[in-house]
Amino acid sequence: MRIAFLLYDQLTQLDMTGPAQVLSRMPGATVEYVAKTMDPVMSDCRLALMPTATLADSGQFDFICVPGGFGCSAAMNDEAILGWLRDQAPGCAWITSVCTGSLILAAAGLLKGRKAGCHWAWGDYLPLFGAEWVQERTVFDGNIISAGGVTSGIDFAFRVLEHLHGPDVAASLRLGLEYDPESRPGGTPATARPEIIAQMRAFTAERLGHRDAEMRAAAARLMGEMA
User: Fold this and answer.
1) Average pLDDT value for residue range 98-107
2) What are residue 167's DSSP bridge partners?
3) Domain ranges across the chain
4) Which terminus, N or C, of the chain has the lesser number of Cβ atoms within 10 Å?
5) 145 Cβ partners below 8 Å, 6+ apart?
6) pTM for the full model?
7) Which of 8, 15, 99, 80 is nearest to 49 (CA)?
8) Element (H, E) at 6
9) Which pLDDT score, from 0 to 100, does residue 17 have?
10) Please, what is the angle between helix 152-165 and helix 13-23, to 10°?
């Protein structure tokens, strides 16, 4: 199985590196990191990521994963990225995303009428693209698999492993990576204290800035094309 992770400026590296570490060990899998050019791509924590292929020369993949990040709104208006996703989709067995990566899939027109996960603070944008936001860590809808925010990508990858190769393979890789998360309250709006939620909403609103307009512009363009 050829797996591609999309790289773009200001992605959240854990959205990508978490599932990549898991899926790179999946039996029979090869992993590529695809970007517009072969230049390093800067993540939102200033960890530079090296592409292994460009959009133009990547070939057809069996499985694509789009990570999220604060750069998602620019990617949602990038015709090179959106065109690549649309071209890949018919030949892909699995189209997947982590966090706000689902918004990029939505901007490409791949989630209309579909259920999808997203980061809790950004999921309200999905209906603008004709998608239904489901607040779960991993969401399956046909050949679309999407994860919630950031760390959900690791759970998503193990769900994919179990779905494709069975529970024993997933359990073996979980042991090899010593993935045994401790359940801690406060990691979702359902368990966090109200004042913490308010602080995070304020932080997110501040970081959105021009990105809100970019996402709405992408939605308006897509829905206009589909009208």
Assistant:
1) 98
2) none
3) 2-226
4) C
5) 94, 95, 96, 97, 138, 139, 156, 159, 160
6) 0.95
7) 8
8) strand 2-6
9) 98
10) 30
For 90-117, the DSSP string reads GG-SEEEE-TTHHHHHHHTT--TT-EE-
Note the Cα 212 to chain centre separation in Å. 18
User: Burial code of 161-183, b = ≥16 C-beta within 10 A, e = fewer?
Assistant: bbebbeeebbeebbeeeebeeee
Q: Which two tokens stand for residue 93?
A: 């067995």
The pLDDT of residue 183: 77
Per-residue model confidence (pLDDT) at position 215: 94
Give the pLDDT of residue 227.
72
Radius of gyration of the chain (CA): 17
CATH number belonging to domain 2-226 = 3.40.50.880
Q: Say what the pLDDT of residue 210 is.
A: 86
- Describe the chain by its helix, strand, coil percentages, rounded to 5: 45, 15, 40
Q: How far is CA 83 from the centre of its chain?
A: 17
Catalytic residues: 99
Instruction: Give the contacts of 136 (CB within 8 A, at least 6 positions apart).
Output: 117, 148
* CB burial of residue 116 (10 Å; 0-12, 13-18, 19+): buried
Q: What is the pLDDT of residue 49?
A: 98
Sign of the torsion formed by the C-alpha atoms of 116, 222, 82 and 73: negative
pLDDT in tens, 158-197: 999 999 999 999 999 999 999 998 878 889 999 999 999 9
- C-alpha span between 83 and 161 (Å, rounded): 28
* Mean pLDDT in residue range 5-32: 98
